[in-house]
Write a structure and sequence with these properties.
The protein contains nine helices and seven strands; from the N terminus they run H-H-H-H-E-H-H-E-E-H-E-E-H-H-E-E. The chain is α+β, with helices and mostly antiparallel strands. It has three domains: 18-129, no CATH class; 160-234, Helix Hairpins; 240-390, Heat Shock Protein 90. Helix 5 crosses helix 7. It is elongated. Its main location: membrane.
């Protein structure tokens, strides 16, 4: 059974905090230096303690009576014991103070690490906000000219190069759309004029013209797919509330499939996005399910809310589009290749009029709408494609 991420048996590695490591390192260094200092103090304090004979055990001193000598020895012994107790109390107090300061150093290290890493957190948050649609934004790290500011300026320079690269790619897409469609239209018109001339044409010429027209249609479809793929990867024009159920019904009707039999769509919230791109997404999924199917196979399209709540609930978060079909059994490796441009899986996916861009366009459109695409090979053959898209914010679901 697969989890929500479409993966099984894969665990997300535990995130290790740099701030925690800095605080632990700071406290560890403090405790190590404090322990070393306490050991030096104990060494010198212990060296000053000497055993003094107890009362009555001292040697006789000339000119001093035995009672006076015993009294002196007793006082020396008491003084030694007092010094020993003071040294022990000093070492005990130092050890307790070291433990307390160690805990305090941990808190101070946590605070200091947070202050030092604050610019890094700000750069991380700003970098996450920047995408292909707002590459003009910059981190603009202020403060002293240190290593962190150098890092921010380096990232800003990288964003500048990316912005110029994306702009050049958009210009190329626009130029290619004009420069390539014009000669294609000219060649198609020439073929039509040739076929429309009065009088009989040689059969070989007619066959050749028909073949050229077919190839021109395939090239035109390939060009349209490439332009759609590039447009979906770089921009999301004119977002609006789009009902996926209606798009699915239209796509099934265009393929002359009965929506009543193949479509399972309860009233759900619309998704927010570009209607043209989302229509292309749905059409590509339905076309893929119909073309790469088995004879007398079936196609099932489902539109539903991921939360599974009734349609009377006012607000939903995501809408799911599920397209399934029968067909040959696919391996996991083949399924992983399907979203790559010009890739097909299986012997029945190597021919035909398709350009191998259908699911690649679906993946690009899904990513442009901040959604998720999951492909699963069905156990009894065929493919199950799940597209999860965010619902339009603040949209009420009509029962």
């Amino acid at each position: 059974m697969q989890d929500d991420d479409g993966l099984s048996g894969r665990r997300t590695p535990r995130r290790r905090s740099v701030r925690r490591r800095f605080a632990t390192l700071y406290a560890g260094l403090f405790l190590a230096s404090g322990t070393a200092m306490l050991a030096v103090v104990a060494f010198f304090a212990g060296g000053s303690i000497q055993a003094v004979p107890g009362p009555g055990s001292g040697a006789a001193v000339p000119g001093v009576s035995a009672a006076a000598a015993a009294r002196i020895a007793s006082l020396e012994h008491q003084l030694t014991q007092a010094q020993s107790r003071q040294t022990q109390q000093l070492l005990l107090g130092s050890a307790v103070g070291l433990v307390v300061m160690g805990l305090l150093s941990l808190l101070l290290g946590w605070y200091a690490a947070g202050r030092v890493l604050r610019p890094v957190r700000a750069m991380t948050a700003a970098t996450r906000r920047i995408s292909a649609d707002n590459l003009h934004e910059r981190l603009a790290v202020d403060g002293p000219h240190d290593e962190l500011r150098d890092l921010g300026e380096t990232i800003d320079e990288l964003l500048g190069r990316l912005e110029r690269s994306f702009a050049a790619q958009r210009r190329f897409v626009a130029d290619a759309s004009h420069e390539l469609r014009t000669p294609l239209a000219t060649m198609r018109a020439a073929v039509d004029v040739t076929l429309g001339k009065p009088g009989p044409l040689p059969e070989q010429t007619r066959v050749l013209a028909g073949r050229v027209r077919t190839e021109l249609d395939q090239v035109d479809g390939l060009l349209d797919g490439l332009l759609t793929l590039a447009r979906a990867q770089h921009e999301l024009p004119s977002p609006e509330a789009v009902p996926l159920g209606e798009l699915a019904a239209d796509a099934l009707a265009a393929r002359e499939l009965s929506a009543a039999r193949a479509l399972d769509a309860a009233p759900v919230a619309p998704v927010r996005g570009n209607r043209t791109l989302l229509r292309r997404l749905v059409e590509n999924l339905v076309d893929n399910a119909v073309v790469h199917n088995e004879p007398d196979g079936w196609v099932r399209v489902t539109v539903r809310e991921t939360s599974g709540v009734p349609a009377s609930v006012e607000h939903v978060e995501h809408v799911e589009l599920v397209v399934e079909n029968s067909g040959p059994t696919l391996t996991h490796e083949q399924v992983e290749e399907l979203t790559r441009p010009f890739r097909r899986a299986g012997p029945d996916r190597t021919g035909g009029s398709g350009a191998g861009l259908g699911l690649a366009i679906v993946a690009a459109v899904t990513e442009a709408h901040h959604g998720r695409l999951d492909l699963h090979a069905r156990e009894d053959g065929g493919l199950r494609v799940v597209v999860t898209l965010p619902a339009a914010v603040g949209t009420e679901v009509q029962a």
